[in-house]
């Protein structure tokens, strides 16, 4: 039985990026059921991230905005955006992993066993041992399923294709718009050249991991109607899951990527989260390896480094509103109104780059643009305590931060939020 320092199960973006970083210091085995370096995803990101992570060669199209459209609202999210050729991204990462000496095997992960010095992994072709196993197998991880670790799950379900359409004189724009159907289906457009576009449908699902194939028939209808001369070149499908786990690590096992619920609520940007977090994750893993701190407690601390709790709480609010906004008669008008109210600051939401100051502003503008009475009507009664509780919790946190900064609170604020722990009756005319 061959031994390694680290075994990584899954060669998607999460597994490959972790392998590239960790192989600089450790002997790494990467296991992938399908052909390593392939994907059926489609990704956009930002020019600064493409440069920072050495992916400029994989950029297919550059644009200065993302367009969001609802029945009566339009928002141009201004930013230096890029659409990647996803196959080139995977090729770049695969080549880096091989250059660093990562051993890559196309094998099916079957099971694992805890042993005295770590983990033994069983595949359809053999057994391998290592002190640490990184589970990057995605939402259908056998380890997550075996241990019944999913606490809460929502999903953005996606189905589409890369299409060639000679009718276009110039590239389409990076855009999202609703079909306004009963299923609350949306269209995503990621142009990759003058004549080729990653065109797909997606919809938000609650309490499920979703099934992309359910969108296939609808996709064929929409494609035929909107681009009748399009030639399908490559199928695109998948599920971007968000939610929470009961545990983010086990002894000698840690979850990364979709299997670790890395994607934030309310935004389908799992790829961008991998870009942002893989170096942080790998540095923390390296430290844990060198200190031989691979028990569940310490590995959970590594997982916590990937999650800003204040952002997570706010994203849960936005995620809940997202699913209910699109079920309203206005079909997401409220959400686009909120983006317009945020103005240039809206890009921080899609980038998932939010500090407490931004969260406070977003919270205020959310309920200035969409009255709380309207959102309450959209939300089922069993969800209302959670959402309102999070809003009160966030407001409390924001007010406490102001007190620590020495800002005196007006009496009106203290009357609205009586009895919150930590608030002192300090009044001012501010």
Helicity range: 25-40%
- Termini separation comes to 70 Å
SSE class: alpha/beta
Question: How many helical stretches?
Answer: 14
Low-pLDDT segments: 412-430
Net shape: globular
Strand order of the largest sheet: 4-6-5-13-14-15-12-16
Instruction: Please give the radius of gyration in angstroms.
Output: 23 Å
CATH topology of the domain at 2-38 and 86-151 and 243-304: FAD/NAD(P)-binding domain
CATH superfamily of the domain at 2-38 and 86-151 and 243-304: FAD/NAD(P)-binding domain
What average pLDDT do the residues reach? Answer: 85
The largest sheet, given as strand count, sense and whether it forms a barrel, is: 8 strands, mixed
Strand content: 25-35%
Q: Would you report the number of β strands?
A: 18
Short note summarizing the structure:
By secondary structure, this protein is α/β, with parallel strands linked by helices.
Can you characterise this structure?
This protein has 430 residues and is α/β, with parallel strands linked by helices. Among the domains are: 2-38 and 86-151 and 243-304, FAD/NAD(P)-binding domain; 309-416, no CATH class. It contains 14 helices and 18 strands. It has helices at 13-22, 47-52, 86-99, 142-146, 216-226, 270-290, 296-304, 309-325, 333-342, 347-351, 356-369, 372-378, 384-404, 411-416; strands at 2-3, 6-9, 28-32, 44-46, 59-69, 74-84, 103-106, 109-115, 118-123, 127-130, 132-135, 150-164, 175-178, 186-191, 196-206, 231-245, 249-250, 253-255. It has an eight-stranded mixed beta sheet with strand order 4-6-5-13-14-15-12-16, with helices on both faces. The chain has a six-stranded mixed beta sheet with strand order 7-3-2-11-18-17. The N and C termini lie far apart (70 Å).
């Amino acid at each position: 039985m061959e031994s390694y320092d680290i075994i990584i199960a899954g060669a998607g973006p999460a597994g490959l990026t972790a392998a590239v970083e960790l192989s600089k210091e450790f002997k790494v085995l990467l296991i992938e059921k399908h052909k390593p370096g392939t994907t059926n995803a489609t990704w956009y990101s930002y020019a600064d991230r493409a440069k920072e992570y050495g992916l400029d060669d994989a950029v297919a199209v550059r644009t200065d905005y993302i367009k969001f459209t609802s029945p009566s609202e339009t928002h141009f999210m201004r930013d230096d955006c890029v659409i990647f050729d996803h196959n080139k991204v995977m090729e770049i990462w695969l080549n880096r992993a091989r250059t660093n000496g990562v051993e890559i095997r196309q094998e099916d992960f079957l099971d694992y066993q805890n042993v005295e010095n770590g983990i033994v992994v069983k595949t359809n072709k053999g057994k391998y041992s290592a002190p640490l196993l990184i589970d990057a197998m995605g939402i259908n991880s056998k380890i997550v399923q075996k241990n019944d670790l999913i606490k809460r799950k929502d999903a953005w379900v996606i189905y589409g294709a890369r299409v060639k359409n000679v009718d276009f004189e110039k590239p389409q724009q990076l855009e999202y718009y609703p079909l306004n159907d009963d299923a609350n289906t949306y269209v995503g457009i990621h142009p990759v050249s003058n004549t080729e576009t990653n065109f797909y449908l997606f919809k938000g699902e609650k309490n499920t991991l979703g099934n992309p194939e359910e969108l296939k028939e609808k996709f064929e209808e929409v494609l035929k109607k909107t681009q009748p001369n399009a030639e399908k070149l490559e199928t695109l499908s998948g599920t971007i899951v968000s939610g929470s786990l009961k545990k983010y690590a086990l002894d000698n096992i840690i979850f990364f990527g979709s299997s670790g619920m890395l994607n934030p609520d309310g935004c389908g940007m799992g790829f961008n989260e991998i870009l942002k977090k893989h170096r942080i994750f790998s540095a923390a893993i390296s430290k844990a390896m060198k200190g031989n701190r691979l028990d569940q407690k310490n590995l959970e601390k590594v997982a916590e480094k990937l999650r800003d709790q204040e952002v997570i709480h706010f994203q849960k609010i936005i995620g809940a509103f997202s699913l209910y906004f699109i079920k309203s008669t206005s079909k997401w008008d409220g959400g686009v109104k909120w983006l317009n109210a945020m103005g240039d600051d809206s890009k921080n939401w899609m980038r998932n780059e939010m500090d407490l100051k931004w969260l406070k502003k977003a919270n205020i503008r959310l309920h200035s643009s969409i009255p709380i009475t309207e959102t309450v009507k959209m939300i089922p009664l069993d969800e209302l305590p959670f959402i309102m509780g999070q809003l009160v919790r966030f407001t409390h946190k924001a007010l406490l931060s102001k007190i620590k900064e020495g800002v005196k609170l007006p009496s009106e604020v203290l009357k609205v939020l009586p009895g919150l722990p930590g608030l002192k009756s300090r009044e001012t005319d501010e």
